[in-house]
Every structure is written in structure tokens, then in C-alpha cells.
Amino acid sequence: MEFLARMEPDAISTLYREYSGYPTPISAFVTANDYMALLNGTSFTLCTEWSQIERFRGARLHYAQQWTLIQNYSKETDIDIQPPSPCSLLHGELLSSYSLSGDLKAVVRETSGQVAGQQFLEVWSNSGLKKILHLTALNKHGRVYEDGQFGSLAWSTCEGRLLYVAEGKRSIGESYASASIPSAGEPTAGPSGGPSEKDKSLYWEDWGEGLTSKSVPVLCVADVAKGTVTVLQGVPSHVSPGQCLWAHDGECLFFVGWWHEPFRLGLRFCSNRRSALFCLDLEGNCECLSGDTSSVSSPRLSPDGRYLVYLEGQVFGPHSQCLSMKQYDLETRNISVLVDVVNRPKKDEFAGLYEALPPRCWASDSQRVVFSSARRNWRDLFVVDRATRRVTRISDSEKFGSWKLLTIQNDLMVVHCSHLNEAPRLAVAFLPLAGGEGDVSWDPLGESCLCGAIVNVLDISPTPQEENPEYSGLDFGALLVTSNHLLSRTKVPLVVFVHGGPHSQFFAEWNVTTAVLVKLGFAVLMVNYRGSTGFGQDSILSLAGNIGSQDVKDVQRAVLTALADQTAEKLLTLDPDKVVVMGGSHGGFLACHLIGQYPDFYKACAVRNPVINAATLLGTSDIVDWRYSCVGLQYSYDQLPTPEALTTMLQKSPIIYAPQIKAPVLLMLGGKDRRVSPHQGLELYRSLKSRGSPVRLLWFAEDAHSLARVDTQADCFLNVVLWFQQYLHLH
């Protein structure tokens, strides 16, 4: 076979380094240059920030790049794109934010080297550095929050104040019963300013995986002219604030508050945590604007300052779910539904809202909101009209499989686009007037980077025996990616790639792992089983109580469907004797189920931080509620495990199939994983070792659940390919 010559370790690493080095856009800001109005159009400056992996140093680089865009007066949808500026490296930036006019840029920067960990707030203008505040030296609070869950950096409309979130400063002589507690492992201060003797070993909660240094967030306001920082008072003691933004008058602000009593549960990737929308004025008066029995996120204020939209979901149950978009009218104080939950979407129609809103999502008319969301195997771009509640798709899935809105300003939309066979790039377009959204004309920025892959979309229905009687009639999807560079009639080994979550999905977007596997000559099948997002709320709910069976059967059905679709006109043939499986987290759970329930079908398996035994995971995960919900049991904070509950969890776990496993298993575990304890993988490792089954374990002591460190990702990929190569006998 042609591709085998390229499967030596050095060649694999080189190819992975090349494909993982494509940059990814992460933010954008648009400024209208009124003073640069031209005879034929209006000039806009597009400022973008990108992330790029540099493998030799094992670093993620962040850089900035600018474009000048000119809107044609004669035809306003036409955009003249000028050559971009050279890229400039950004050093130590944790957060950045442009003021409304675009004249000022605020940056929270952290030092490295000999004086590492010092944080500064900088304000830059067109003439250079305007102001700098040494936040660490001011000692008003702890570290600034830069995460996507709590973190904010927002300018007031007067451009004189900045709003952000930081860890609360420890109070002197803090009591044992205080609701405002320090971060995990951090002592309180005693009367002398040092750790209190009685508290030096006290345990402090945090917000779990990916948020281990976050415990007690506080809202902070920096006055640019005075150079002062004030920690705002009045936030209710039972909630932790985040996602804050100014009201239009600059005299009050809005924020999301998450309940942290009786104790904190993991928050990352969990849209089901009890929270509410609050309004706080600068005098410390606080009011809850939304209901307090739901989950709330992504508050966004309209340009005219009258309407606030936000996302709302259910508490507990599925950790990720179809959300509604609510609208709060600040004048009438009425709440209405703009976008409702979609239970059963029709094919090719809007399938619901599943992801956070971008920071700027309003059209300039304050009547429409633009957002991205999953639709079956794609991520599309939509606009909802506030007056009609009509949702219209404005992306073109024929061009790209994934459209992620970065910003819309002056009705100029900037979108991060990609496909399974095309690396990320930007596209821009003007949003037409209301009613004409179907006529959007997109202009890509930069050069296209194609990887030479063929993408086939599979729509799959379960057999009558595999139907869920409570949610009958649901289907699901898969993406089959193959190379277009192999000789005709080549028999190709198949990698079955299973996503985690389970309530997430594979978009038809750039995926480095898939792209390199296909380049090496594998076919990759990416399965969106029932329970994946993008297929409606019923699909998500159908999985509760059915993990380990419904999702396993769906993946196997998708594999059999792909293998059976071998018509004469197909250039490649999938080899049914060379099928392997891989996945992480719940994807690893499913992969281990598959090799246990179908022991003669899969020839090898590679899993990252898999759930192996749901019963033993119960006391070690940061999302203990999900351990009950996923097996169909109700959860409450005061819940104690029962023999019946533990038996149910065990019966749905892949560990019970360990004696049947024949496929060699590669385990990749993060030593600091808070979501799925690495002892889960060790449990399977020991079980397989005791039976003489081929198993290999890679232990990454400093990595957490996502195994996201640059060197770790490269190490994992190389080992996965070599593992498959060895046990598929591809030498």
C-alpha cells in the first residue's frame, strides 16, 4: 500500500507537526474608520488574534494581525480586502479588550522569567502606552480570571473604567463557616498577615477541572484616570459572579451568578449549573433579573442599551443541552423567549442552540442577534429577528463545514471557518437589512490550506431492535473522511473515532488528528451517536439511563453502515479486517465497551482518560451529579450512594466486559485529571495485565483531562499511530 512508506516515526511526527501548526483565529474586533472615508467606500480596520502551536519549543503562540476592508458604496455587500499587516507576537497577554470607539485597548498581562506571576493592567492608545496598573502590587484581589467561564474584561461606554473578574482577597481571621472561601489549597491570612495557624491545613473548594485555581470570584472596577481598583460590594454571598458587562449608562452592570452552596460542582463544559442573571449598581445594590431555578449564561446587551439577551437551560440532567435564548427588556422589565428549545428538528432546518454567544452578536439595528450553533454534523451561522422570532441560516455548508462567529460590528460579520479537508481561515460579510439575510455574500481572508480529503456524510437510523421506545424515530449521523491521493481500489484500514461528552459532537470542522490519519492513508469515521448535540433535545434526553448500550450500538451501526457502503464507483474500499477504535473520556468509555462487546471485530484500541467503572468514579469526579444522571438516576446534593445505584453504574460500565477484551489497548492518562480520575484507566490496565492481554499505559503527570499540553498531544498521536500500525500488521 502506498501510504505505508510514510509511516515511520520521524515521518509521522513531521507530518503531525506540519498539520498542527496551522494557526487558528480566536478573536476579532472591527473599527469603522470614518476619518478615512474614501470616494468609493468606507474603510474598516479588522484586528484579529490567532493561536498557533510551535512544536519545537512545545509552545502555543499568540499573535495579532490586521486587515483593512473597504465597503463599496455602489454595492454595499462588496468588500475590497487589502493585504494584511505582518503578524506580531503577543507576549504574556491573559485578556485584552478594545474600547467601544476602538481608540483604546486594555490588556491584562502576566510576567514570566525571574519575576514570574506579576499581573499588570495596561491601557494602550494610538500614541503608545497610556496607563499601567500593577495589579499584584495594589493587592486589592488575587489573580485575574482569564478563563472562558468567569473571565471578562469590559470597557464602560465612557471609556474611563474597566470591569473584570479576579480571585477574592483573603480576609483576616476568616471564620470556618464563611461562605467566601479561598481557592483550593490556599490558606487564609492571620492577624499578622501570614497564614492563620488553625487554618493552614483547611481544605478549600474550587470549580473543578480546568478551573482548579478558581474559587471565590469578585467583580473589580479599574478607574483608568485615577489608576485605582475597587472590588465591588453587594454580590449575594451564595453566588459566584462572572461573565460581567456594563449597562449602557455605566452606572450599573450585569453578571451571571452561580450558586456555590452547599458545595461547588465542576463547571467547565457543564451548562446545567444553577445560576441567574443579576444587576448590580456601584453603590452595592443587587437585583436578580431572571428566574433563580435555571441555568443562565452569555448575557449580551443590545447597541441601544435596551435589550439584554442570554441563554437559559435546565439544572442538573444532561451536562450540555439544547438552550433557549431569552430577552430581557430593561424598560418594561419583561422577559420573553427569542429562541426556544428544539426537541425534534426537521432535516436541514435549525436544530437548536448549543453554544455560548460571542461577546458581540447584535446587529446595529438592535433588532437581530447573530450566533453559531450545531446542526446535525455541521456548525452553522444563524440570525434571529427580535420582532418575528424567525431564525434564518446565513452560512453555506457547501463552502465550509463549520462557521463560528467571532464578532459582528457595524453589521460586518467576522467568522472563523474550516472544514475537515481545509484548515481554519476567516471569512467576512455584511449582514443585509432585515428580511434579506438569505443574500449574504461571504469573502474569505487569507489563503486556503487544503489537505486532500474526501468527506462523506452518513445519515443513520437505528434498527427496530435498537430503537429507544421512549424516544422512537430519532436518527444520528457520522462523517467518513478518506484520502483522495491513494490508488484506485486500495483497501484502507478504518479508524473509528468516538467523541466524548457524551453531549458534544464532531462538526465537519478542521480536526488535526483526523487530517493526519487520513494523510497517512487511514479512513476515519467520526460518529455522532444519539445523545450528541445538534440533533435536538430529544436526542440528548434519549441517552440518560442508556449509556453503554444505546450509544455503543449506534457507533457499531455507523461502522457497519460505512463498511456496507462499498459501491462499485467507490475509489477506496474499507477493509473490514482492519478496524480500530479510539476516543477520550466518554469516547474512551465507548471504545472500551466496543472492544468488550464486539471482541472479534476491533483489532486495536487507543483511549485517553476513559471512564472505565462508573461506580468507582462516583467519589472522585468533579461532576458527581452527572454520574447519577447518565445512568438514569436523579441527583441531589445530599445524595448518598445505595447498593442499587452502585450496581446500576457498574452494570453500565466497560469494566464488566474486561474478560472478553481481545484487542490490544493503549491507555493515555493525565495525572491531574479532576473529571475522570486516572485510576479509572489504571483499573482497566490492571485487569488486562492480570489476564495477559496486550496493554500499554502512557502517564502524563502534569496533564489534566484534555491532555492539552503541546508535547503531550504530539506524544499521544505518535503512539496511537504506531500502536495501530503494529496491531494491524501494516509493516
TrEMBL record:
<feature type="domain" description="Acylamino-acid-releasing enzyme N-terminal">
    <location>
        <begin position="50"/>
        <end position="431"/>
    </location>
</feature>
<feature type="domain" description="Peptidase S9 prolyl oligopeptidase catalytic">
    <location>
        <begin position="513"/>
        <end position="729"/>
    </location>
</feature>
<dbReference type="InterPro" id="IPR045550">
    <property type="entry name" value="AARE_N"/>
</dbReference>
<keyword id="KW-0963">Cytoplasm</keyword>
<dbReference type="InterPro" id="IPR029058">
    <property type="entry name" value="AB_hydrolase_fold"/>
</dbReference>
<dbReference type="GO" id="GO:0006508">
    <property type="term" value="P:proteolysis"/>
</dbReference>
<comment type="similarity">
    <text>Belongs to the peptidase S9C family.</text>
</comment>
<protein>
    <recommendedName>
        <fullName>Acylamino-acid-releasing enzyme</fullName>
        <ecNumber>3.4.19.1</ecNumber>
    </recommendedName>
</protein>
<dbReference type="InterPro" id="IPR001375">
    <property type="entry name" value="Peptidase_S9_cat"/>
</dbReference>
<keyword id="KW-0378">Hydrolase</keyword>
<comment type="subunit">
    <text>Homotetramer.</text>
</comment>
<dbReference type="GO" id="GO:0004252">
    <property type="term" value="F:serine-type endopeptidase activity"/>
</dbReference>
<dbReference type="GO" id="GO:0005737">
    <property type="term" value="C:cytoplasm"/>
</dbReference>
<dbReference type="InterPro" id="IPR011042">
    <property type="entry name" value="6-blade_b-propeller_TolB-like"/>
</dbReference>
<dbReference type="GO" id="GO:0008242">
    <property type="term" value="F:omega peptidase activity"/>
</dbReference>
<dbReference type="Pfam" id="PF00326">
    <property type="entry name" value="Peptidase_S9"/>
</dbReference>
<dbReference type="Pfam" id="PF19283">
    <property type="entry name" value="APEH_N"/>
</dbReference>
